[in-house]
Amino acid sequence: MSAEPTVVEGQKQHTLARRGTIATELSADVARGGISDTSTTLLIFHETYEQFYRDTATDRNKAGLDKEWSFMVRVRCTGVRMTADQWLHFDAQADHFADGTLRLTSRQGVQFNDLLRSNVKLVITVIDAALLTSFGACGEMLRSINATPTPRRTAVHAALHNAAARLSSALLPQTRAHHDILLAEPGDGPALAEEEPLHGATYLPRKFSIALVHGVTQAEPLKPLARWSLACVALPTCGQSLAEGERVHAPMLAAVEGALAKHGVAAERLSQRLTGGHNECARPYAGDIGGVGRAPGLYTLFVGGDSAGTRLSFPIADKVPEAAVATALEPIFAIFAARRAITEGSGDFCNRLGTEELRGLINPALAA
């Protein structure tokens, strides 16, 4: 293993425990975005991503204009605990400072989107005032402690949520940089790089999450596919996306549900995960059906995982047009309905048939 740190690890090591020049850059009364590369990396550890509207970037560049920069701020909701008053408070602030929406993430967070640079610290202060935090929701650290969202009040559920709260507190980084630069709570003396006994000087090599679960009741009246479906935000703000995510999720889901219903298997529990690119935010490789953006309007399709997320799926078709996703999957649904074993799920069935047989089924459908 090489002892030389990567560029990103060097940025983590030499920026005074994730402080860098963030405070100066966020306070600068200049462009609405376009902060330095180092601050872009460090802001992720403070639950903020710099983004830009990719829908307009090319035309603005041709016109000699800067990108339409914005920021996203994520709330860390340990054990998915939030009161109605907290939600309503965030909802009102989203109208005032963001784009009027709140996004619920696959890891039980809440996101404000389309913030101007000058509003980033204001929104983080709003979150803190509501007795929640944005600290520890992004970056290469333990970024979330998830627990069952069921509202049942039992001793078991109380124990799960108490355990989630204790884990969250114990496993957060020790740095006070978040409070120093974003909440205007500097210490009495000069800022020093705190020791990190768990995370170390470079933090973790990848993001990490923990989930505590017990007895989740299925939501009604959603159809099973809709109940177990996820999509990432993708375009127009995600810099990793090559294709659409949430903006095409509903029509794609409806088309796949129609194909399932045609063959009498719409009541089966299947999970569908859609992401605009390889960053895997909606976990496309862990469900029965996965779609990963390859280019505008084109997706790689995966099958063979399972709805519980215990087995990775495998690719069966590449660069499938958005409108042809259901068409490509329909022959699989037909043979699943006809040949599956009793109690065999879709992912198990596809895994049993294997890549070559499944590709032989869908290639004629895509060529038609």
Notes on the protein architecture:
The structure is a single chain. Helices cover about 35% and strands about 15% of the residues. With about 375 residues, it is of the alpha/beta class. Strands 7-8-9-10-11 form a five-stranded mixed sheet. Strands 1-2-4-3 form a four-stranded antiparallel sheet, covered by helices on one side. A two-stranded parallel sheet has the order 5-6. It is globular and about 65 Å long. The termini are far apart.
**Alpha plus pi helix count:** 13
Query: How many individual β-strands?
Result: 11
> What is the H/E order?
HHHEHEHEEHEHHEHEHEEEEHHH
| Structural class computed from helices and strand pairing | alpha/beta
User: What percentage of residues falls in helices of 4 or more residues?
Assistant: 25-40%
* Main beta-sheet strand count, sense and barrel state: 5 strands, mixed
Mean pLDDT: 85
Q: Distance between the terminal alpha carbons, to the nearest Å?
A: 50 Å
What is the radius of gyration computed over CA atoms, rounded to a whole number of angstroms?
22 Å
Kindly estimate the percentage of residues that lie in beta strands according to DSSP: 15-25%
**Low-pLDDT residue spans:** none
Shape: globular
Strand order, largest beta sheet: 7-8-9-10-11
